[in-house]
Write a sequence for this structure.
């Protein structure tokens, strides 16, 4: 791991990070991955630190992964959910955060439906703030774990072709993956119905496709995304059956792929819609390895941000 001086109090978006910072997080995650492969899977790096996991939106993978990462780093942990907190009684997000701060917490890991909620907190409180997903905007640790997985499997990112297929419009994963992959020199293709992948995305520097075969032929990685019904106000396509027929990855549409194409999905999977079970559970799938790597990436970002907050 090279020498590098981490200088961020918060991890808000992968868009903010430069290439050196991204690579340093990935290298640090590589070291923490080794910790989880040992008999004793715990290190004292965050002993004496308090981390609050504040999830205002549902989560399985990100929440479990952050909590386990904190345990592996020996932190003290408090978990707050929207449903059981005083947000229900009308307390503001900032007041809740100030109360967390008054308990001398060091870090807040937050998932929130409002894009930019993390930026507001990070500016107003002393604790380090880690973004565990904000609306359709950003999910930096998902992007970092996706990039870590691709780098580990393919040996690097520069020059790779990566297709991200699905509900791009509502996806913080698509935006975050695209920002990170573009910074590291990959070609990024976004694919889905025109209603879910507007041409304006090309301003980011990606290629937009409305035909699955054209999007995935010759790529090194396909990342499938689910349709986010919870964020859709309108009918963006006639039916899930029709979506699956034109944009689903199954045994037939996999024939457009190279034999060594990685198949990824951030979860949760809608089996039979964006991805058939035979492909999700097949030999090219690295979906569960993404989950394993997520733990290492979250240990790395907690460790780096906590180190800065301490200074
Ligand atoms: N990938 C992801 O963010 O999954 P969860 O919503 O279950 O955390």
């Amino acid at each position: 791991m090279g020498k590098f001086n981490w200088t961020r109090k918060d991890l808000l978006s992968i868009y903010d990070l430069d290439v050196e910072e991204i690579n340093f997080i990935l290298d640090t995650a590589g070291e923490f991955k080794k910790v989880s492969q040992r008999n004793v899977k715990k290190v004292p790096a965050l002993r004496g630190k308090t981390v609050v996991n504040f999830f205002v939106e549902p989560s399985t993978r990100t929440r479990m992964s952050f909590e386990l990462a904190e345990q592996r780093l020996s932190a003290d942990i408090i978990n707050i959910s929207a449903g059981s907190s005083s947000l229900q009684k009308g307390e503001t997000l900032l007041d809740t955060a100030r109360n967390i701060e008054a308990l001398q917490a060091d870090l807040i890991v937050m998932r929130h439906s409002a894009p930019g909620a993390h930026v507001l907190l990070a500016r107003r409180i002393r604790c380090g703030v880690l973004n565990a997903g904000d609306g359709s905007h950003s999910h930096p640790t998902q992007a970092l774990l996706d990039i870590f997985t691709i780098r580990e499997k393919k040996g690097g990112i520069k020059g790779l072709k990566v297709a991200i297929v699905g509900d791009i419009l509502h996806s913080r994963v698509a935006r975050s993956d695209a920002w990170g992959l573009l910074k590291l020199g990959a070609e990024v293709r976004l694919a889905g119905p025109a209603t879910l992948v507007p041409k304006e995305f090309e301003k980011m520097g990606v290629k937009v496709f409305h035909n699955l075969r054209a999007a995935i032929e010759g790529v090194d990685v396909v990342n499938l995304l689910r349709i986010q019904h919870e964020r859709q106000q309108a009918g963006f396509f006639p039916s899930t059956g029709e979506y699956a027929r034109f944009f689903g990855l199954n045994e037939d549409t996999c024939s457009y792929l190279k034999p060594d194409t990685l198949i990824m999905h951030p979860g949760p999977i809608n089996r039979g819609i964006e991805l058939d079970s035979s492909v999700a559970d097949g030999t090219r799938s690295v979906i569960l390895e993404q989950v394993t790597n997520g733990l290492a990436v979250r240990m790395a970002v907690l460790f780096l941000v906590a180190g800065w907050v301490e200074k």
The radius of gyration is 19 Å. The pocket of phosphoric acid mono(formamide)ester is lined by residues 59-63, 133, 142, 266-268 (CB under 6 Å).
